[in-house]
Structures are given as structure tokens and as C-alpha cells.
Automatic annotation (TrEMBL):
Subcellular location: Cell membrane; Membrane
Taxonomic placement: Bacteria, Bacillati, Bacillota, Clostridia, Eubacteriales
Function: Essential subunit of the Sec protein translocation channel SecYEG. Clamps together the 2 halves of SecY. May contact the channel plug during translocation.
Membership in a protein family: Belongs to the SecE/SEC61-gamma family.
GO molecular function: protein transmembrane transporter activity
Subunit structure: Component of the Sec protein translocase complex. Heterotrimer consisting of SecY, SecE and SecG subunits. The heterotrimers can form oligomers, although 1 heterotrimer is thought to be able to translocate proteins. Interacts with the ribosome. Interacts with SecDF, and other proteins may be involved. Interacts with SecA.
InterPro entries, sorted: SecE_bac, SecE_sf, Translocase_SecE/Sec61-g
Keywords tagged on the record: Cell membrane, Membrane, Protein transport, Translocation, Transmembrane, Transmembrane helix, Transport
GO CC, alphabetical: plasma membrane
Bilayer-crossing regions: 53-81
Species of provenance: [Clostridium] cellulosi
UniProt protein name: Protein translocase subunit SecE
Topological type in the membrane: Single-pass membrane protein
Length: 84
């Protein structure tokens, strides 16, 4: 019986060590994450608005470009179908 008790006690000690390592790892992870968030230089509202406007303008320009190409292709194919 002492061998069985020793094995059971050994497993509980091993589980306890693994639990401590996991807890320490999580604590270190969140501490490092918090430190990294402090390093971030967040944009000002003015910069955010300016960058958002640039993105919307780019989307508008590309949308018009794709619409123009689509209209051109549609008219070309329509004219080809009318001839044949």
C-alpha cells in the first residue's frame, strides 16, 4: 500500500506544480500584454478622421473605376451580340 500512496501523492504534487506554472504563465502573459499596450501610440481623433476620409476616397475612386470598366465591357459584349 505505501507504493500506491506514494504514486498518488506524486501525481498530486506534479499536478500542483503544473497548475502553478500555468498560473505564473498566465500572470506573465497579462503583465507583458499590459506593458505592450502602454507602448502603443494611439492616433488622435483628427488623424483617425483624416485616415478614414482617405480610405473612403480610395474606395470611391476604385468603385468608379470598376464601374467604368464593367460598363465598357458590357457595351462591347452587347454590341458584339447585336452584330451576330
Amino acid at each position: 500500500m505505501p507504493d500506491i500512496e506514494a504514486k498518488v501523492k506524486g501525481k498530486s504534487v506534479a499536478k500542483n506544480k503544473a497548475g502553478k506554472k500555468r498560473t505564473e504563465g498566465l500572470k506573465r502573459y497579462f503583465t507583458e500584454t499590459k506593458a505592450e499596450f502602454k507602448k502603443i501610440i494611439w492616433p488622435t481623433p483628427k488623424e483617425t478622421f483624416k485616415q478614414t476620409a482617405i480610405v473612403f476616397l480610395a474606395i470611391l475612386i476604385f468603385g468608379v473605376f470598376i464601374w467604368a470598366l464593367d460598363s465598357l465591357a458590357m457595351s462591347v459584349f452587347y454590341n458584339l451580340l447585336q452584330k451576330y
